[in-house]
Amino acid sequence: MSPMTKTGLYIHVPFCSSKCNYCDFNSYAGRIDEAESYFEALKKEIELYYNTMETNLIDTIFIGGGTPSCVNQKYINEVLNLCKIKFNISETCEISIESNPGTLDIEKLTSYRRSGINRISIGLQAYQSNLLKYLGRRHSTDDFIASVELAKKAGFNNINADVIFGIPEQTMEDWAETLKVLVELDITHISAYSLKIEEGTRFGDMLERGELIQVEDELDRNMYHYAIDFLRENGFEQYELSNFAKEGYQCKHNLTYWKCVDYLGLGAGAHSLLEGERFSNKYTIESYIDSIEKGLKPVEERYKLEFSDKVSEYMFLGLRLNQGVNNSEFKKLFGQDMFSIYEESFKELQQKKLIEICGERVSLTPLGLDLANQVFMKFV
């Protein structure tokens, strides 16, 4: 019998209490009363993939959103229980859930642990009350600290905090304080993102009207480098552009994306990569449920990856990782020599001091971390 294919599973929960000013994710505020019909559809989608996933071993599950923790925990439990019945779940499966402070209590967290969830991500974004208000967050800093303490009490030791730098009005002192608090709380994983102003968000509209002044690049980069240095000094390894972990606490699910491992996405707007094909689900709650009720997989678009697509994705996703990309692995996957295919690109990027080559491995330099998009464009 051939070995099973290790596969990630993503489950999308599109509900949230309110829409943050910067958010462009597929999420909907004020519609939690539709949760029951949505989760019924989600369970039917799991059934639709029962036969497809017979030879796949699920070794990571990520429940994202939206804010999964804003819905009743029974829905999360029912979906996970059905996954365990219908799919092959690894005994060592990493199961993560995203949450917001103010939506967690000990009963909910204990229920998560009983259902097998062993990693929780809590969205802090900023420690200062004025910045939380500016971002459109509804929680307080006290809510965040209480949520971390409750998560630990419920038995979670794998806890991530999401934080943002480069926020208008944010100072370097604000950023340093935010990181210091996380270290003091003994968080095991930190995801630190530079604020991006996206079209269609409140911040995007404000920028268009001239009501928002973006942070200067120099301050944004100084904040980034401060995070790298400060977190390294406090026992965190930067293993990806925006992610820092204590030893043994890297996010295995996100590594499936960066290493181009297969994953199945369930729920409205979820994306998948299975057997060389990328596909995405119907985006709105209504269109998603409608497809499911017709007995159809709710797929909106499909795209078969050509050889050149697979090679390209391996390069620009792999270079996000601090360990970079490896020629031995490249040869095993694609039967060709990475240094031959990208000889000119590597030479140019090396001259610009954006990458370093060490034996079989190619990775970003500190300057390359700052100008990563310039590097990635060479492989798109």
Automatic annotation (TrEMBL):
Residues 1-237 form the Radical SAM core domain. It comes from the Bacteria. Belongs to the anaerobic coproporphyrinogen-III oxidase family. HemW subfamily. Keywords: 4Fe-4S, Chaperone, Cytoplasm, Heme, Iron, Iron-sulfur, Metal-binding, S-adenosyl-L-methionine. Probably acts as a heme chaperone, transferring heme to an unknown acceptor. Binds one molecule of heme per monomer, possibly covalently. Binds 1 [4Fe-4S] cluster. The cluster is coordinated with 3 cysteines and an exchangeable S-adenosyl-L-methionine. It holds the Pfam family HemN_C. GO terms for cellular component: cytoplasm. GO terms for biological process: porphyrin-containing compound biosynthetic process. The keyword Chaperone applies. The keyword Transferase does not apply. This is Heme chaperone HemW. It is found in: Cytoplasm. GO terms for molecular function: 4 iron, 4 sulfur cluster binding; coproporphyrinogen oxidase activity; metal ion binding.
